[in-house]
Design a protein that fits this description.
CATH superfamily of the largest domain: ATP-grasp fold, B domain
Distance between the termini: 43 Å
Strand content: 25-35%
Radius of gyration: 21 Å
Number of helices: 11
Helix content: 25-40%
Bound molecules: adenosine-5'-diphosphate
CATH class of the largest domain: Alpha Beta
Length: 377
């Protein structure tokens, strides 16, 4: 079976490993000539995944098509589906998820919990709603499309913040009081069977809103774990998606769970699943594409996941300073994406630390932060 993946970034690279393991014919398309997958895949096409003709040409030789990033040309995927190609996740689901406004609308229609929101076409319209009292400070403003890693999201606290506000095609959301941000990954196969991973928890810097690391499993009580998993399964079923669905949720101080957004593909919050669970998210996604039975999602060990980001002040050919010091620590798994050049804050890899206790994991995290840096040669 020929499986094609749109996108050749790090998530694609991590799909490649289980495809090798299971001897699955996998091919990729991306415009990057020196991306994480281009270095390793035997079948790699240079092409624009947002371009109709490029996606049609790539899809013509695939029996099953999937994605590792959701910014793809859905018109081409719909046409390929009509012509008989299996496309998972289904193109209309990718299209809906590409638009944060349509996503929120979907949760509301399905009775799935999410913060209240409103659609806006222009700043004038927003100003009108503020004046009439329909919207009150503070609130969250989000671009409907093409935001990622927090770009395209801002908190508007007062009139003075309106000067930096997005000017068109955005939504506003109630500012949620967040106790914890958690992520839950599901995988649903074509027969409708769903498996779910244990929730993980994002830990942020106390003052700056910077993600420090992710803890798996999340440090929350069993009742919340059960509710979060249940909500994640309901969400995957509401979409009717085939393949992975990562659900980002907010846990409020009163114990309510609200869906923030979802990703219909392998997700950062599931990187730990390679070493810390029975069957990784990547392998489970591939299994659904290849029509193979789903794998066990059981957590095998506690983990702490941290990003490897380019250090400030360095741009150029990458060098991993101090890697020799950290590779000797038991339980430290370094994953480098194979990007040849570094720049400040570029995601160059991640480290998944596995171990017994949260204290031990945090001690290793601290040591790595102090002794390892991504610099240029
Ligand atoms: P992106 O898709 O760029 O990751 P998100 O929608 O996940 O954007 O938002 C980024 C961050 O902004 C979230 O992780 C959360 O910390 C904060 N955030 C988003 N929506 C809200 C909200 N309604 N209330 C409070 N904080 C929010």
């Amino acid at each position: 079976m020929k499986i094609g993946i749109l996108g050749g970034g790090q998530l694609g690279k991590m799909l490649y490993a289980p495809a090798n393991k299971l001897d699955i014919d996998i091919r990729f398309m991306d415009s990057m000539t020196e991306g994480p997958v281009s270095k390793i895949a035997t079948n790699y096409t240079i092409g624009d995944i947002t371009n109709y003709d490029d996606v049609m040409a790539f899809g013509a030789d695939c029996e099953v098509l999937s994605i590792e990033i959701e910014k793809v040309n859905c018109e081409a995927l719909k046409e390929l589906e009509l012509q008989g190609t299996i496309v998972y996740p289904q193109p209309q689901i990718i299209e809906l998820i590409q638009d944060k406004g349509l996503q929120k609308d979907f949760y509301q229609q399905q009775g799935l919990p999410t913060s209240d929101f409103k659609f806006f076409d222009s700043l004038t319209e927003l100003e009108g709603s503020i004046e009439s009292g329909a919207i009150q400070y503070p609130f969250v403003q989000k671009m409907r499309k093409d935001g990622y890693d927090g770009r395209g999201v801002q908190i508007i606290r007062s009139e003075s913040d309106l000067a930096q506000a997005f000017s068109s095609n955005f939504i506003t959301e109630d500012l949620v009081s967040i106790d914890k941000e958690i992520g839950v990954i599901t995988c649903r196969d074509a027969k409708g069977q769903v498996v779910v991973y244990d929730p993980v928890e994002m830990v942020f810097h106390a003052d700056a809103n910077i993600l420090l690391y992710q803890l798996g499993p999340a440090d929350i009580n069993q009742e919340v774990v059960d509710r979060a998993k249940d909500l994640a399964i309901k969400t995957a079923e509401a979409y009717g998606i085939v393949g992975l669905l990562a659900i980002e949720m907010f846990l409020t101080p009163s114990g309510q769970l609200l869906i923030n957004e979802v990703a219909p593909r392998p997700h950062n919050s599931g990187h730990h699943s390679i070493e810390a669970t029975m069957c990784s998210q990547y392998e489970n996604h591939l299994r659904t594409l290849a029509n193979l039975p789903l794998g066990d999602t059981k957590t095998l060990t506690s983990s702490l996941l941290m990003n490897v980001l380019g250090a400030e002040g360095f741009t150029g050919p990458v060098q991993y300073e101090g890697i020799d010091k950290i590779l000797t620590i038991p339980g430290v798994n370094v994953h480098l994406y194979g990007k040849t050049t570094t720049k400040p804050f570029r995601k160059m890899g991640h480290i998944n630390i596995i171990g017994e206790s949260k204290d031990e994991l945090i001690a290793h995290y601290q040591y790595i932060t102090d002794n390892f840096r991504v610099i240029s040669k």
